[in-house]
Amino acid sequence: MSDTLTEVKAVEETVVEETPAAAEASAAPTKPVEATEAPKPEAPKAAEKPKAGRPKSTAKKTRTVELTLTVTASAEGEWQADLVHGTQRVVSGLVIPAIAVSKAAKELHEDIAEGIESVLEAARDQHRTRMEELEAELAKVKAQLAELSE
User: Fold this and answer.
1) Does 126 have pLDDT greater than 60?
2) What beta strand segments (E) does 1-150 contain?
3) DSSP 52
4) Which residues are registered as beta bridge partners of 69?
5) Which of 37, 100, 44 is nearest to 69 (CA)?
6) Distance of alpha carbon 142 from the chain centroid
7) How many helices (H) and strands (E) are present in the chain, helices listed first?
8) Running DSSP on this structure, what letter comes out for residue 38?
9) Residue 72 — φ and ψ, nearest 5°?
């Protein structure tokens, strides 16, 4: 920052020093002044070269990170997660418990929680039905075993 201030002061001093010389040259019209005779002021290099390209924006720049989390449920009610960062796969096929999915969905948003809960409820119904079928089959096998034991 101090370099910029020094450059500005140097430009101001040059202007002040040249002003009296320019006044003397204009006061003596009998002597023609050629462009080669007058000393050329040396401006700092920063003032000579304009910056190429776009001017810097004053807008606040926000860095964004692209993460894609995909949570899938199988027909058996098993949940898996895949995580992709940009185009790179970070996690693939990570088995996660259904309760963790339910809790995470509730933390994220009510609409997400409702969608996940409907899938979980369908899985619960499917498991209850399967459990009832297995209990009926178990009762049948117990009855057959009792007949053989008598």
Assistant:
1) yes
2) 67-73, 79-85, 88-96
3) P
4) 83
5) 100
6) 61
7) 4, 3
8) S
9) -125, 150
Tokens 């996940």, located at residue: 116
Alpha-carbon separation of residue 115 from 24, 106, 124, 129 (angstroms): 87, 10, 14, 22
Which residue carries 């910029």 as its tokens?
4
End-to-end CA distance of the chain: give it in Å, rounded. Answer: 102
Tokens of 107: 């933390």
Q: Report the range of poorest mean pLDDT among 17-21, 56-60, 116-120, 131-135.
A: 17-21
CB atoms within 10 A of CB 90: 13
Residues whose CB is less than 8 angstroms from the CB of residue 49 and which lie 6 or more positions away in sequence, other chains included: none
Asked if 101 contacts 71 with a C-beta cutoff of 8 angstroms, the reply is yes
Q: Residue 84 is encoded by which pair of tokens?
A: 């992709």
pTM passes above 0.85: no
